[in-house]
Amino acid sequence: MQKSISECTTRHSLKELSLQEQHVHLSAPLSGPPGKVIISHGSDFSYVGIDAILEQMRRKAMKQGFELNIMVVGQSGLGKSTLMNTLFKSKVSRKSVQPIPEERIPKTIEIKSISHDIEEKGVRMKLTVIDTPGFGDQINNENCWQPIMKFINDQYEAYLQEEININRKKRIPDSRVHCCIYFIPPTGHCLRPLDVEFMRRLSKVVNIVPVIAKADTLTLEERDYFKQTIREELRANGIDVYPQKEFDEDADDRLINDKIREMIPFAVVGSDQEYQVNGKRILGRKTKWGTIEVENIAHCEFAYLRDLLIRTHMQNIKDITGSIHYETYRVRRLNESNTHFSSQPSDHPPVQPKANGQLEVQPSAVQANGVAAQHEALSHEM
Ligand SMILES: Nc1nc2c(ncn2[C@@H]2O[C@H](COP(=O)(O)OP(=O)(O)O)[C@@H](O)[C@H]2O)c(=O)[nH]1
Ligand SMILES: [Mg+2]
Question: How much is the pLDDT for 148?
Fold first, then answer.
């Protein structure tokens, strides 16, 4: 599903269409109520009807629905669950429960996925939030990024196994993490070594969107200073967060994404409480000195984050996951298979990645779960 939607909605294809439209003389435009295409050709046989493809795509996309998998990472209590609830104005993520005493310092990071079907104006979306409670909560946080890296790679591996199966599903279930929201504590100083280490490693395998958590605890000056410091530190450490400069497709992209890059990390405030302000119901945090409206851009940058994830860049986030991050994993994985098999050529001929990027599966190589099942998941780390 992802491929067909992404192919259909790339700017290139739209541009090509509009170019062609200029050459096609339309004797009668498309008309009729939305959702129904009535094409009247009149007597002009030069009308081909290429423009109707947009309607076909729309109907197909509506039928299939959309899927987005968001992972949230950060220390307990930084407002991850609250922000996810704010994002979709529904209880998509469970609030932290007070841990029972013996569980106060968990030994491992437990990763939980919660899926919700959301519908708005007839468009269906399956949102999966992957919560990583306890990240960085231990006294020794060395290598605490590892379980998260493993989880991300496991999802790539599951997808790869489905792809190389001879009898593959019409729609491969996509559990790949499309975006990882990384919560930076609102210290106002600089990134901690843990933050740098996590983002440096993980930005190579997943789209990272850093946010400053609980930004209502900073003054405007502190917030601006902190944002600037973080941007400088990301640059100094060679950390490429989403939207990555090298994946801008054209000058239009660059223009839009440069504006986003200047605003990163978003200083967010979350709340799932509704209040009445000036006769309107708003999501906010009520304090003694007033109510912070989380969706008001004069108060915080939550709305920018939401727009990026859902309204403007959702398809691009998924495209980059598929064509860059997953692709890197896939190529590496299959190369490893090749190396492995070429050293033991007699038993299992390998899966061959062809120059055009497609897989050529040697039937004898495919076992119950595909050839690559014989290997441990590799660390997809450059
Ligand atoms: N001041 C402030 N508090 C917040 C914000 N978001 C969440 N909280 C509060 O912080 C506490 C922990 O939030 P929670 O979402 O459970 O954090 P999690 O452990 O990261 O999932 C709760 O009491 C929230 O009400 C925020 O943006 N600002
Ligand atoms: Mg939580």
Answer: 93
Confidence of residue 322 (pLDDT cuts 50, 70, 90): very high
The binding-site residues of ligand 1, defined as CB within 6 angstroms of any ligand atom, are 74, 76-82, 95-96, 214, 216-217, 269-270
Nearest bound ligand to the CA of residue 211: 1
353: region left, alpha or beta (phi > 0 left; psi from -120 to 50 alpha): beta
Indicate the residue type of 333.
R
pLDDT, tens digit, 9 for 90 and up, residues 282-319: 899 999 988 999 999 999 999 999 999 988 999 999 99
Q: Cα of 174 to ligand 1 centre, how many Å?
A: 29
Give the nearest ligand 1 atom to 95 CA. 16
Report the SS3 class of residue 277: strand
User: Which residues neighbour 378 within 8 Å (Cβ) at sequence distance 6 or greater?
Assistant: 153, 332, 333, 336
Compute, in angstroms, the gap from residue 97 CA to the centroid of ligand 1. 12
Q: Which CATH number fits domain 59-337: 1.10.10.10, 3.20.20.70, 3.10.20.30, 3.40.50.300?
A: 3.40.50.300
Taking the C-alpha atoms of residue 180 and residue 222, their distance in angstroms, rounded to an integer, is: 25
CB 376 within 8 A of CB 154: no
Residue 175: which H helix or E strand, with range?
none
Nearest atom in ligand 1 to 75's CA? 20
Choose one of 71, 72, 82, 223 to mutate for the ligand 1 pocket test, by most ligand atoms within 8 angstroms of C-beta.
82
Is the backbone peptide bond immediately before 243 cis, with ω within 30 degrees of 0?
A: yes
- Look at strands 280-287 and 274-277 and give their pairing: antiparallel
Percentage of the chain with pLDDT > 70?
Answer: 71
Helix (H, G, I), strand (E, B) or coil at 350: coil
| Separation between Cα atoms, residue 70 and residue 291, nearest integer Å | 28
pTM more than 0.85 = no
All structural domains of the chain with their residue ranges: 59-337
* Spatial separation of the C-alpha atoms in residues 246 and 257, rounded to whole Å: 11
Using a 10 angstrom Cβ sphere, with 0-12 exposed, 13-18 middle and 19 or more buried, the burial of residue 230 is: buried
